[in-house]
Design a protein that fits this description.
It contains eleven helices and five strands; from the N terminus they run αααααααβαββααββα. The chain is of the alpha+beta class. The chain has a five-stranded mixed sheet with strand order 1-2-3-5-4, covered by helices on one side. 23% of the residues are buried. The structure holds adenosine-5'-triphosphate (ATP) and magnesium ion.
Length: 370
């Protein structure tokens, strides 16, 4: 049905084709009837034209079908109904045949037209249906398109949102965290600095302690407090202990138990003499030992400092006696003793040096006068 509908619609769509098909079919019916002529003779002259009428009624429309009916009547009358090659009608039978063919053809044409119209209606309905389907398809396509666009927009919005959140995170939390990190590193640096400062404070405290010790030592060496308060023996022991420790020279002190106290000038002079002698031993004698012997009589004090070092060369002794020594140690000792009425003797050989200082125990005024 659908195929015939398609064919009829194709034929009906071109008017000239409808007429051409109708005439062509008629010609073919004529030829077919000619082919049947040996068998049928003048019997059933319209036999091959019925299918042509039916065909044109179905596919070609009313007017071509009427045209086919008329041309079929004429062709049958001319070629197949005696007398042939003439349109003359001999009897009522032939007339009845013409009428019957015409009526049957009319019926076929009417039926064909009705069916064709039905088919046309169906075709239109189908067309409408197809149109609606196409419309729906287009609507669906549009919906799909909008859905795709919506999806794309959603994805883009999602991306934008993510980008915005990322930027917000970076700009707010990120910056805050960066600030916090900077603060923490500053605190870390502060802690490190504090640790360093604490170490420096500890070091400084140690230095202050050392400086204090040094200052005390220097101060004590400049003027030992023990000398005034505890007397010569204590001051000498304190000094010798420190000297032995610093110089690694073994120092032996001989000091009488009943020595008693002397004037401040005498005690200072004796202490300074021992101090200078020990310093000289440490600096010049290269002796591992030093021996100090202090004795007193009622009238004077004798201080002897000896070492086992290399001694003072005769040239040096000559130099010291004539033009003075490069140092002021011995000269200073001698001068101090001289002011107190005392003397200084130096006896030096290759086996060591012995320095002897003698001081009279007199009153200060008498000494100054002397
Ligand atoms: N115990 C000693 N053993 C060897 N040489 C000594 C000894 N004492 C002094 N001398 C020599 O005598 C010189 C003079 O000594 P002195 O004490 O006058 O000067 P100094 O020790 O060199 O310098 P300073 O003025 O600092 O005392 C020294 O340079 C040294 O050569
Ligand atoms: Mg000296």
């Amino acid at each position: 049905m659908s195929k015939s509908v398609v064919l009829s619609s194709q034929i009906l769509s071109r008017p000239w084709a409808r007429y051409a098909f109708a005439l062509l079919a008629t010609a073919m019916a004529v030829l077919a009837r000619f082919a049947l002529n040996p068998v049928l003779g003048d019997y059933l002259p319209y036999i091959t034209f019925f299918p042509v009428v039916a065909f044109s009624a179905w596919y070609c429309g009313v007017i071509p079908s009427i045209l086919v009916t008329i041309s079929s009547l004429m062709a049958a009358q001319y070629w197949f109904i005696p007398p042939t090659h003439s349109f003359r009608i001999l009897n009522t039978e032939q007339l009845a045949g013409i009428v019957a063919f015409s009526l049957v053809s009319l019926v076929i044409v009417a039926m064909g037209e009705a069916m064709r119209r039905n088919a046309e209606v169906l075709r239109e309905a189908q067309g409408e249906l197809e149109e609606r389907v196409q419309e729906r398809t287009a609507q669906l396509d549009t919906a799909n398109q909008s859905l795709r666009e919506l999806t794309a927009r959603l994805l883009q919005l999602q991306d934008d949102e993510r980008r915005r959140i990322a930027r917000e995170l970076h700009d707010s939390v990120g910056q805050l965290l960066a600030g916090l990190t900077m603060n923490l590193s500053a605190v870390g640096a502060d802690i490190e600095r504090l640790i360093k400062t604490a170490n420096m404070v500890t070091d400084s405290a140690a230095l202050v302690h050392e400086i204090n010790k040094e200052v005390r030592t220097i101060s004590h060496l400049l003027h030992p407090p023990l000398l005034d308060e505890a007397g010569l023996a204590s001051a000498l022991r304190w000094y010798i202990e420190g000297f032995a420790e610093r110089s690694k020279i073994k120092v032996d002190l001989e000091f009488p138990e009943d020595f008693g106290r002397l004037s401040r000038e005498l005690e200072t002079a004796i202490f300074r003499t021992v101090q200078e002698c020990l310093t000289n031993i440490h600096r010049h004698a290269e002796s591992p030992i030093a021996k100090i012997r202090i004795t007193r009589t009622s009238s004077d004090v004798r201080v002897q400092v000896a070492d086992g070092g290399k001694g003072i060369s005769p040239e040096k002794q000559e130099e010291m006696a004539t033009i003075g020594t490069p140092g002021v140690g011995i000269r200073g000792m001698r001068e101090r003793l001289r002011q107190l009425g005392g003397t200084l003797d130096i006896n030096s050989t290759g086996k060591g040096t012995v320095v002897v200082a003698r001081l009279p125990i007199l009153s200060n005024s008498a000494t100054a006068a002397a």
